[in-house]
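Working notes for the structural subgroup meeting. M.R. asked for a predicted model of this chain before we commit to crystallization trials. I am recording the input and output together here so anyone reviewing the notebook later can reproduce the run.

Input as submitted:
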Amino acid sequence: MKLKSILIVIGATLIFTAILAACGATPTAAPQEPTAVETPPPTSVLETPFLADWEKSGHANASNYPFRHWDEEDPAEVPTYCAKCHTSAGYQDFLGVDGSAANKVDAAVPAAESQGIQCVTCHNSVTVSRTTVTFPSGATITAGADARCMDCHQGLESKISVDAQIELFSAADHPDTVVAPIKDAQGNDQTFGFNGIHYYAAAATLYGNKALGGYQYDGMAYDSKNDHVPGYDTCIGCHDSHTLEVKVRECSVCHPSASAVEDLKSIRMVSSLSDYDGDGDTREGMYYEIQGLQRILYAQMQAYAAQTVGTGLLYDDHSYPYFFKDTNSNGEIDEGEAVFPNAFTSWTPRLLKAAYNYQVSLKDTGAFAHGNKYIVQLLYDSIADLGGDVVKLVRTDAGHFAGNTEPFRHWDGEAEGGGVVPYTCAKCHTVEGLPQFIQNGGTTVVAANGTTQIVGLGALPASNGFQCSTCHNEASFPDRYAINSVTFPSGKTVSYGGKDADGKYLPDDSNLCIACHQGLESTTSVNNALRGKDLDTVDPKIRFKNIHYFAAGSTLFGADAQGAYLYEGKQYAGEFMHAKPDGRVNKCQDCHDVHALEPKIKACETCHSVSNPALIRESDVDYDGDGDVQEGVSGEISTLAEVLYAQMQAYSETHGGLLVYNGNAYPYFFDANGKGYAAWTPRLMRAAFNYQYVQKDPGAYVHNAKFVIQFLIDSIEDLGGNVSAYTRP
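Returned structure, recorded in token form:
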């Protein structure tokens, strides 16, 4: 009999005897020799989920430098400003799991305890409900389960800290002067120097202007969060949360050429249409576009340092503090140069900003995927700020994908509800707006008070430009959404697809375009707003009606859409049928690249001898009466628009005060003191509406020139202008 079994039996017997004794009972017989007892099966060991996956990761490799850096320090401990991300205990201290205050590390961690990122680091009582993260800039972002990743992968510096150092040294007004040391309150020297963003600041790249991780130059706009596509716009959407590896197999669903991580460097989306680094290659991956800009910026930094500071500059990615003096001025790292005593110290504020952005682009090795457009913008602006030639470089994408531009960034800085696009704007200024509008059977209506309203759509989060899913139905990708007809702000319904034998509208891809490119106002809404008012009496209740931007669809359909103000009793051209009789170049996609949006100039050259569409004209009629029948029809329209503006000013001076126009500043029309114009008469407002219409459709001369000429001449005439010299189509 096994000893363990014997002991179990003896133990059980003794316990039983003790129980009997406690009850006052006496055993009636001597205990018999114990018999063999079968050994119970061993208790099963609880397996740690994903342990094998975690063991493959950099987080688990406790022998690596990020966890061993402090072993030889004295004292051998990880300081509080490093412990959050380099020790498990430090992150739990930061979270407050150990009972300490949250959002700060209270105590250094012994270096020996720096044993990688363990299960409990991310799986604890706080992280299960943690959804927000605060960046070094002070920006707080709601990121869901990604928050635990982003707490560390955010960097240590930001635009805010770079500006703070410049301000501390009172150097803001001297951008090209080497900043000298200052004394702190204790009389110690404080040196103006380089502070890097630190390693793998992926979250700062991903969230762009929301995190302010890069140095964003004042007056410039930057991309917001890179949303990529639904399901692949988060840390754990693209990375295995335990191995940390990129889910390349899932990337290959949309990017068939990507079978390994290295292949991801060759990817560029359909939204990446430009030659950002100016090398003539628009097929290379975004990794290489960024690499090209990095080379240009580095060369510009070296040239600036040599010419402005008088000290050569070198960079070594693997040696702290990264930037060193070029002691022999050969532009390359030589033996003995990339060492701490040779650190570059001749920093000017301008050079510091550029160097910071240069390292931001390098220290996130996945920046080309996390937020490549944001990085492009940082590098471009740094090159330009140092005086570099950016003529061949590209900073901003085609309009639909230009996430850094006003049509997508307008709502970011609003005091309340920042980052939320109201329903009146969401259809055309968010990724999901148009699809929701289509799926909900949305339409445009004019309310009784004259306002244009969107039905079938609510407020949506601000977007970083459009995505494929804005126009392509994800349920049947790559099919585009089929729209049979489009209702304009006037209430009129049109379709590029025409009608079938039963009179039903037919779908056409161009209907997708004009669902947004139609403006916000119309003859109907203007008339409703002015109903019952005397045409020449100033009324302080009148507000200018703004057609909005790029209402090409309204221009193309002319009188059928009634987007411009059409005067009663006048006849106007309807849909512009270009290239009759077959109309092969008659729709949006016939004349514009659907992604780059650029006009297909070569298609124009098939019939027109000039390569500039602005020089095209189709008749010898002198519409503007200036005697020039060689100028393009664009010139005819420009002259009439100038005459209309002069007529508006002459009329306004005799009806409430001079009116001044500024197409780049809302509300566009101002009085002589620069305040929003308030002395509107109905007659002046109608003419101003048409004047603004022409300014905001820069392609009006192509979209429907005769229609435009008609309403310009009518507007001049209605204000009392002499139109006898003009020819109305």
